[in-house]
Amino acid sequence: MGVVSILTHSFTDGYNREFGRVFGGGLERYILDLCSVIRELGHIPEVHQLSYYEAFQTRTEQIDVFGYAYDMDDVPEAFARMAAAARGPVIYASCLWQPISYKPGSLGICHGINWDRPGLPLETKQQVAEHIQLALDGLVRIVSVDSHFQTFCRAACTFDDPQQVVLIPNAVDTSYFTPAPPRPRFGKEQEAEWLSAWKEDLASQEEEAGVVISGLNAKEAILLDNADNSNQANEIADSVASIHSTALPSTIARPLRILYPRRISMERGIIPMMLAADRLLGAYPDLEIEFAGELVEGSTVGRAFRYWHRTHPHQDRILQRTYDFRDIREAYHQADIAVIPTVFSEGTSYACLEAMSCGIPVVASNVGGLNDLIQDGFNGLLVPPGDEALTAALVRLLEDRAERERLGIYARETAVAYDLSGWRRKWSSVLETFLADAGLREGIRG
Question: What digits encode the pLDDT tens for the residues 328-379?
């Protein structure tokens, strides 16, 4: 049993100075899952990260974490200090676009291209290719979460081993992120019995049909799947929805809800989302919009969002909550549509996969790895980044319940292919080879 060190720019919350809490972003979730795989292989993970404030040491989720104060204009220097302090084999889990001097024999991870941001000068993009070449030259292997980085390396850099860049897309626990049960339309005294029956039916569908459908049984799913065209599918979905809506007397009126399950930040598309919300909340009086992501208090974007929410004429229908990793399913289960309006810097989004796994129709930007996940019109809607196309796509789904249900069905089926169990197997294989080679190199040096 030995230590494996993970070097990254973020794990615990160095943004809000809550060093003992894992920050609720995709990178941080990824590292947490990776630490679990390392432990299963009999090794001890520890994390070294940048700190926006003072240096720190903490322990969270059974992981020792070391924070390093640094100069924002000299990230490579901070990574050099982390590598010098790290014990055991080293995994560089971010910042491969920086000119880092890598510790020999180390592994790298690319979490998505971030040099696709609007307005980035051409000379900067050309420089990035040089920095990625340094990563290819200095790391024994790089794991990419989407196909775009792999393509970039082949187009803009050179490397001899075609297996040096390994594609392991992000994943989702499909046994946890399941479609929500249909919302009950009867009294609370019947709810426990109804929920138990629904769970049994859900398990039966998983086993026998290999698909989980929100509000539909397996027979109805087969009818939808066999529909010759979208019009026929819509007619069947309308018929199915009609059956479900008349089976019990309706006593509960519930507004539709759009969910934005992302960090409140520029790259995640918060500005297009706020602009779309302005139009939609004014046009649909029964609509709610929930913002369910991390917010860095005091940041420019954080202050702008707080002011927008506080002064909005429809503020009572704008919800904002930061969920823990383990609670975010609640947000998906209360939503009718999820939106991933990324502007730049995206891999295969955890939030997109989680929404799809919960059987929710997703509107996503055609940015980064999102178009690895969404096939437009089949399992979601894919739009160019910006508020105009985003608003139009959301209006389309708000107006068409059958379309929402149809897209949600195929979203769930797609998510099954990205189940977490497969991710863990692939990473175990990569780590076993990496750690064995590291041990061999150490033995030779010894």
Answer: 999 999 999 999 999 999 999 999 999 999 999 999 999 999 999 999 999 9
Question: Class assignment of domain 3-171+421-445?
Answer: alpha beta
User: HSE (CB half, 13 Å, CA atoms) of 338?
Assistant: 32
408 DSSP β-pair partners: none
Q: Is the pLDDT of residue 211 over 50?
A: no
Could you tell me how many residues make up the chain? 446
Q: Which CATH class is domain 173-418?
A: alpha beta
Helices (H), 8-69: 26-40
pLDDT of residue 268 exceeding 50, the answer is: yes
| Burial class of 426 by CB neighbour count within 10 A (0 to 12, 13 to 18, 19+) | middle
pLDDT bracket for residue 440 (50, 70, 90)? low
Domain ranges of the chain: 3-171+421-445, 173-418
Residue 345: C-alpha distances to residues 26, 266, 385 (Å): 12, 10, 12
Q: What's the distance, Cα to Cα, between the start and end of the chain in Å?
A: 17
